[in-house]
Amino acid sequence: MSNEANTCRKYVEPKLRDAGWEQEPHDYTEQYYFTDGKIRPKNKRQPRGKRKFADYLLLYNGEFPLAVVEAKRKYETPDEGLEQAIAYAQILNVKFAYSTNGEGIVEYDFITGKQSDVMDSFPSPDQLWQRLTGEGKEQIREDIAEKLLTSFYPTADKPLRYYQRNAINAALAAIFKGQNRLLLTLATGTGKTTVAFQIAWKLSSLEWNAFGESRSPRILFLADRNVLVDDPMNKDFSAFNQQKIHKIQGEVKKGRDLYFAIYQAIGDREDSFGLYREYSPDYFDLIIIDECHRGSARDESNWRQILEHFEPAYQLGLTATPLRDDNVDTYRYFGNPLYTYSLKQGIDDGFLAPYRVYRVLTRSDREGWRPSAGQIDRYGRTIPNEVYLTPDFERKLVREARTKAIAQHITDFLKSSDRYAKTIVFCVDEPHVKAMIKELRNLNSDITRTNPNYITRITSDAGDVGKGHLYNFKDVLNETHVIAVTARLLTTGVDVPTCKNVVLARVIRSMTDFKQIIGRGTRVREERGKLSFNILDYTNSTVLFEDRDFDGEPALINESEMDDQGEILSEHEEELESAELEDEAEDLEDDDDKSGFWGLPDDDDAPPRKYYADGGSEEIVEERIYDLNPDNQLRLSRLIDYTREQVRILYRSTLEIQQRWADPEQRSEIIELLADRGIDFDELKQVTNLSEADPFDLLCHIAFDAPVLTCKQRAERLRRRKTDFFEQYGEDARAILEILLDKYAEKGVEEFNVPTTFKANREFDKYGNVAEIAQKFGGVQQLREAVKHLQNLLYSA
Fold first, then answer.
1. Does 234 score more than 70 pLDDT?
2. pTM of the prediction?
3. Contact 159, 192 (CB under 8 A)
């Protein structure tokens, strides 16, 4: 048991019990882990970094977090862990942080901003609750606080994550204060639906409604695609009484509590008024708008009138995209987000999957393509003599050879990695989808001849067949539907937890669209082997990762835009102009999806207005691989150069590494530190062709040009130079150390993990079990010292 754990058991917990934290209904959680540990795709032995945990989380009423406690060793000062406690309290959104060495206790109070003197005891649950409730800026109004104590819907198999709880409480507090336009910004894959469900559950449990009547609230869940309402309705929200749920499609029903709808089903049409008009403006108490950046909040949206009709209702927008030029209308309508959880945070916490980017260029994408003089296309038309670049392909000009080259590269990539890894290929439009499917099928006929669904078309034009493919493709247990080829249908809102490859065969200009598309791969499904994903980019669209706004600090709207005379000022003219241009580009893309470049001609017998340049050749001429650095920024994957740079940042010389490496604990710290930076020794050995090298020598060689020794050479040198080390031990102990050194020479430094090595190798059996082996050295402590001394000599010899 460690000294800190000893402090917790002997000293901290009695003080918590004395203060009433173990009396019903209050509680505390020991070792409260609130992250999963950042995923390290290259590290096969330890694929995750360390999880963050608070030594204690103090819970009022059993589930409302109030404080964190960090415990340090008894001989340290009481405030030793305070900075860590403060940092964790900020993440967990609690107002009190404590540090203790088991005797003295130090408090930091976020409400007052003050740090206490050393105290003998913890405050009681009621004392902290009374300090939390009040009218101050950092406090919660007492009537609101009492409502926040309402229990969550219990999900033992999937407990709420800290950021979900923060988002739920932030939204509920705002609702209880009377704020009727609300926004939550949560990265794709972080559980927006779970958050929405728990908000609805708590409001229903309280029988809250917008008008203070004695009834359950009427809640409308609104989105722009059936899959975005069907999934929540059939999964999270199925916890509600099914008799109280209704999906509005074709008929109006009243007397329910939960309604689900897509804009298209309830909005006005050219020939008729929309179904939403059948409900009075004050019918719904709360409207939850999923993917709200794409729908009715936009000023020019045809669906804006739906939200305006239900103006009295509280309206909660859910989005994955922070404020940018192309979604400023959304933020103006709903206001600044009550809570934000970004993609970067999700990756750092280990809740979202990191990615590797492959930027791949064909010759015509890198150099452009020009037709030969007078070249005729498939339909007998002269192709205009100009240079065609990536944005022109599949819009102005179609080259079958280019599609074949991309399909071949996709196929080769899957063959070299995993042919049954779920893959989404984003194409320009419907004809491009069909052409890509044809090429992929022909290249994978060894699979498609027995499984025609291996490659499927999932587009809106594919109708019910495409919808059926979509549900099979999403199913984590389905191994027949592997490659989905689409245009825009899968860009957002479709949960494919096992998607391992996102392929960009069309240009993406909109940052909002880009983040949504990347979000198709960010979900983690550890039990199915999904911990990371790949992005294959054939259009250089991933340069958007380099935009400082991709996942930086969230921008906020100026919520006060009025001059001294009360006139509204527009501080966003440039932003709006930019947004309008981007919207025009998106509208053009929408048109292209349906009909090709500039639309199909009126005459059905006329050729399409794209040019089709058949024949010719095409080849992949460039492929660059990028990985995430510790700050989640893309870096070109030159592992040796990157390792040299990182090691030199951390350590000044070979001697410094040597002094640390010789000590097993400090060696583990070095390995962990490098793993967090994406450096894996197995991969280093592979790229340097030094498979036999001791990891220490490999590091020093790369970083400081030191000579390389193999594990076998180090072992031989130790035996030759330090014979007196072995001679100090008895015959059996000396033999055990010799075997241990042999194991190191054969397999590497991991063999010094003594108990595991003793149990795993039959050569040690004749000396007894671990306890009996220890006795050959005079006891467990003497054995540890002998093995540690052996390692020190090994790296100093």
1. yes
2. 0.81
3. no
